[in-house]
TrEMBL record:
Belongs to the mitochondrial carrier (TC 2.A.29) family. Keywords: Membrane, Mitochondrion, Repeat, Transmembrane, Transmembrane helix, Transport. It comes from Kalanchoe fedtschenkoi (Lavender scallops). It is a multi-pass membrane protein. InterPro entries: MCP_dom_sf, MCP_transmembrane, Mitochondrial_Carrier. GO terms for molecular function: L-ornithine transmembrane transporter activity. GO terms for biological process: mitochondrial L-ornithine transmembrane transport. It is found in: Mitochondrion membrane. One of its GO terms (cellular component) is mitochondrial membrane. Solcar repeats lie at residues 31-122, 131-225, 235-322. This is Mitochondrial carnitine/acylcarnitine carrier-like protein. Transmembrane segments: none annotated.
Length: 324
């Protein structure tokens, strides 16, 4: 009887130990998620403030209508787009459409970095062990899937706000003047229902999945190169800025034509669309403008990507480190 009681006590202690370890692991995991959410939010805010004016010019160049033979385009280039925008709308015109991403930047980057963090935990062979570059590529791709569904409606509102002045001058085009992100949302839902907010989802996912895979892979690769090994915990802020900037450049270098197609689809008219889908937009752009048509706005995009992503990754790393 005593032996049975002893075995029972030991069994209870064992179950309690397993339960305690599971609870501690769960709390640590939730703590990591909270830290990634907070750090991702700060990083996203830094990225938006630094990069939005460049993004406005990129979208204006991407979405201006193709001119008839002999006609000059609305904007001759990025500098001309900046000059015309500031002249017509003031400096605030460069930040047009910022309300939509600002409202969701916390969610967007929180999801991006927290999903990446959870995938890192799943792929890590033992606690604290650095991941390989190929594993970071997988984590980036997985995070890209998650953020793609959030990015699509947000960017649709932003693009339609940013592009309306460029679209207004197209032959036969009548641009709707939106009062802000919510006004865009109301127009879209009234014309196409809630599904209309997800117009361009396919090219958005086609951008986010490989783009984030490349970005996080390059970020980790450059950090390891600068650190001289897998342990990158001692890198200074200058190294993080370099790694983040080059990682951002790799994102756009890899997927830019997809982003052009996404912008064309998202600013297209719902009732009388120019394009039947992503493939049609790609083909028509290639036929009318050649390969260079798929790289409209590439200069502003690259000019934005380096400082904006340098700010994002630095803010993320500093905030994440300060949280322990």
């Amino acid at each position: 009887m005593y032996l049975f009681h002893l075995i029972s006590v030991k069994s209870d202690d064992s179950c309690f130990g397993i339960s305690l370890r599971a609870e501690i692991h769960w709390k640590l995991q939730m703590g990591d998620v909270a830290k990634d959410l907070a750090a991702g939010t700060v990083g996203g805010a830094a990225q938006l403030v630094v990069g939005h004016p460049f993004d406005t010019i990129k979208v204006k160049l991407q979405s201006q209508p193709v001119q008839l033979p002999g006609q000059l385009p609305k904007f001759s280039g990025a500098i001309d787009a900046v000059k015309q925008t500031v002249a017509a709308e003031g400096a605030g015109g460069l930040y047009k459409g910022m309300g939509a991403p600002l409202a969701t930047v916390a969610a967007f980057n929180a999801v991006l970095f927290s999903v990446r963090g959870q995938l890192e935990s799943l792929l890590r062979s033992e606690p604290g062990k650095p991941l390989t570059i190929s594993q970071q590529v997988v984590c980036g791709a997985g995070a890209g899937v998650a953020v793609g569904f959030l990015a699509c409606p947000t960017e649709l509102l932003k693009c339609r706000l940013q592009a309306q002045s460029a679209l207004a001058t197209g032959v036969g085009a009548v641009a709707v003047k939106y009062g802000g992100p919510m006004d865009v949302a109301r127009h879209v839902v009234s014309e196409a229902g809630v599904r209309g907010l997800f117009k361009g989802l396919v090219p958005t996912l086609a951008r986010e999945i490989p783009g984030n895979a490349a970005m996080f892979g390059v970020y980790e690769g450059i950090k390891q190169y600068l650190a001289g090994g897998e342990d990158t915990s001692k890198l200074g802020r200058g190294s993080l800025i370099v790694a983040g900037g080059l990682a951002g450049a790799s994102f756009w270098s890899f997927v830019y034509p997809t982003d052009v197609v996404k912008s064309l689809i998202q600013v297209d008219d719902y009732k009388n669309p120019r394009f039947s889908g992503s493939i049609d937009a790609f083909r028509k752009t290639l036929a009318s403008e050649g390969v260079k048509g798929l790289y409209k706005g590439f200069g502003p995009a690259m000019a934005r990507s380096v400082p904006a992503n340098a700010a994002c990754f630095l803010a993320y790393e500093v905030t994440r480190s300060s949280l322990g």
